[in-house]
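Private note to self, pasted from the team thread so I don't lose it. Backbone tokens:
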């Protein structure tokens, strides 16, 4: 039963389509959108390669941004030689140095397709070579061929392509793995291409570049990953050293060796690989250096197949190559140069045992805003996509302060803290507000259970409720309930609340129930199995689901996502589906009112929930169907601001904020001018 004092909306189903406004809403005035600028700047680098620029050893890497920026750093005198924008790309996961010294860059497209770019050292500019596979936004991986061109792999679709440097033509070999959408890694050896797929159960494929024939190289069954044999996730990296192929599986984090001459797997296996790049061959191709979580750099002799740790290494290994630094006393021989995620460069001489780390010369770029929420202090808090920095924006002074935090999918106040749901690994951070100045978000717990993206969080003042998207290649999010007062037993995780669906809507009602909603989508790299999104009611005290159902709404039988659940001032649960806003009676579980504000929207949503924010002016503000909208909760009349954005919130003065890429935008309520 509902708690006394709640006002329940009048019974009876009320439906209206289209944007209609009563005089009360129509007479309200708002400012034109104001551009407040970017909140976040980051240096975010996924991969780097080592080559030469005018005879000098140089590092080449791309900083993610709008657009991404390709950087050339000279390593002898350590200086930034040039920074060049990659128009049409927002980041790069892979580069390759071709046989003629050209550097190829795999672009992740800011539009519909990822483009391949080429930098000729000394030329001073980057060439856009076009889209190898139109409609494939991610070019994941590159490897050089033996004629100045490159092979690459894509997502979504899992194609392999080739760029012929002589003819300037692309060849698309099509989908390689019939069960996987990713080609995550690629290598070339003696006229043959090797491709690694993923994200559910990646495998190694051999491709004949002339005929296009592809065959799967069956992986050996080993005790260390026998229980994961059908869940190896991605072949995250492939590397060739001598006549051997090294294969890094991201699921069990193992490295396997494959003799390309004998076409046989090594008996030896190496565990605890750090990644994302497993390792590099030595300058003379007689050894392979890889990185583990416990031992850092490990040297593997290809003749004896014996390995030994040679140097500690923290963080992620993002690729590198061998250089000669000439007169540098500390590095007289072959020196491994590598680029870190912040653009800093490190040198390692494994024979002499010396190393040096040099500060980043890369320039930060504006980072797309990925999460936005009002904190307990009234300020706005934001996280970036592909960044490691959060921001606090003061609406009154418009000052911005930044602090370290990972990529948050959602932000929510709970008690005297602000909680951050961070990807990857569904890690939850808490930022304390018990003093005058909020501190830096600190790790609080990990949800586990193969979850990756905490896209929705809500609090009832006692407990924090979290809904998640699972890891790559998996279906089925979880409901996590966190009670800070319960100590070690404070976290309860409930998998499979709705079979093979993820949770993207949560509202804790005073009646005792937690209302939730789902998306049919799981992690990347797996097909949807459910036919429609669902609503559910959860008994918080008993820890069990009491009901699951599809709402009585037009289009519900094919809806991909139901989200935006919120407690309304009328005592009901409000939510959204496609272009519809609806009002749910929390006692009868029936839809009492709805309006199809955007009837042209019929298949909206994947992961990011729609946001509902209640203004002190009595209006409901939302990014329904990705369109910034104000709604009169009494009549369901709506005002479309003509702005497309899937991320918004409001401050205490009812200023409406939304996101346009890296930029924070604002629309303010205005006093109505009297007509004369």
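Design output:
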């Amino acid at each position: 039963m509902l708690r006394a004092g709640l006002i329940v909306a009048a019974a009876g189903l009320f439906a209206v389509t289209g944007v209609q406004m009563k005089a009360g809403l129509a007479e309200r005035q708002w400012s034109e959108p104001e551009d407040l600028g970017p909140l976040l700047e980051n240096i975010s680098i996924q991969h780097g390669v080592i080559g030469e620029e005018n005879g000098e050893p140089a590092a080449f890497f791309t900083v993610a941004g709008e657009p991404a920026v390709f950087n050339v750093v000279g390593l002898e005198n350590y200086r930034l030689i040039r920074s060049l924008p990659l128009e049409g790309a927002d980041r790069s996961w892979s580069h390759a140095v071709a046989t003629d010294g050209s550097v190829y860059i795999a672009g992740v497209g800011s539009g519909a397709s990822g483009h391949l770019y080429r930098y000729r050292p000394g030329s001073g500019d980057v060439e856009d070579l076009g889209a190898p596979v139109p409609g494939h936004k991610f070019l994941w991986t590159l490897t050089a061929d033996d004629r100045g061109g490159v092979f690459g792999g894509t997502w979504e679709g899992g194609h392999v392509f080739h760029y012929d440097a002589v003819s300037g033509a692309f060849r698309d070999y099509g989908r390689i793995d019939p069960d996987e959408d990713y080609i995550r890694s690629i290598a070339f050896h003696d006229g043959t291409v090797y491709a690694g797929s993923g994200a559910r159960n990646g495998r190694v494929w051999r491709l004949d570049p002339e005929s296009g024939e592809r065959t799967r190289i069956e992986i050996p069954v080993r005790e260390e990953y026998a229980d994961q044999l059908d869940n190896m996730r991605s072949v995250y990296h492939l590397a060739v050293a001598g006549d051997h192929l090294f294969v890094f599986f991201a699921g069990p984090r193992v490295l396997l060796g494959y003799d390309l001459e004998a076409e046989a797997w090594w008996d030896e296996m190496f565990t605890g690989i750090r990644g994302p790049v497993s390792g590099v061959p030595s300058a003379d191709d007689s050894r392979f250096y890889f990185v583990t979580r416990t031992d850092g750099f490990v040297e593997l002799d290809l003749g004896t197949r014996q390995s030994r740790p040679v140097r500690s290494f923290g963080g992620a290994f993002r690729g590198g190559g061998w250089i000669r630094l000439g007169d540098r006393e500390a590095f007289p021989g072959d020196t491994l140069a590598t680029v870190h995620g912040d653009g800093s460069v490190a040198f390692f001489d494994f024979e002499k045992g010396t190393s040096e780390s040099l500060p980043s010369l890369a320039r930060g770029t504006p980072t797309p805003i990925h999460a936005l929420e009002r904190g307990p202090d009234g300020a706005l808090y934001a996280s970036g996509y592909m960044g490691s920095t959060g921001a606090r924006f003061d609406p009154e002074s418009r000052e911005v302060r930044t602090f370290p935090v990972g990529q948050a999918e959602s932000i929510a106040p709970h008690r005297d803290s602000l909680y951050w749901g961070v990807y990857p690994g569904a890690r939850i951070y808490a930022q304390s507000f018990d003093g005058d100045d909020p501190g830096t978000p600190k790790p609080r717990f990990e949800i586990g259970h193969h979850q990756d993206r905490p896209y929705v969080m809500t609090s009832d003042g006692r407990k924090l409720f979290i809904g998640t998207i699972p890891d790559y290649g998996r279906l089925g999010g979880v409901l996590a309930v966190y009670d800070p007062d319960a100590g070690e037993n404070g976290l309860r995780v409930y998998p499979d609340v709705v079979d093979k669906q993820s949770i993207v809507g949560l509202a804790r009602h005073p009646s005792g129930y937690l209302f939730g909603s789902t998306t049919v989508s799981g992690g990347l790299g797996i097909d949807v199995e459910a036919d429609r999104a669902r609503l559910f009611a959860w008994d918080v005290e008993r820890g069990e689901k009491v009901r699951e159902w599809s709402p009585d709404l037009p289009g519900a039988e094919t809806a991909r996502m139901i989200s935006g659940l919120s407690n309304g001032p009328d005592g009901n649960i409000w939510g959204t589906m496609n272009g519809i806003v609806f009002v749910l009676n929390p006692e009868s579980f029936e839809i009492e009112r709805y309006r199809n504000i955007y009837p042209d929207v019929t298949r909206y949503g994947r992961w990011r929930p729609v946001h509902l924010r209640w203004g002190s002016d009595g209006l409901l503000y939302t990014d329904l169907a990705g369109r910034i909208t104000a709604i009169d909760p009494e009549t369901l009349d709506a005002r479309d601001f003509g702005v497309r954005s899937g991320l918004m919130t409001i401050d205490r003065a009812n200023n409406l904020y939304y996101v346009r890429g890296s930029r924070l935008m604002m629309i303010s309520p205005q006093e109505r001018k009297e007509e004369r």
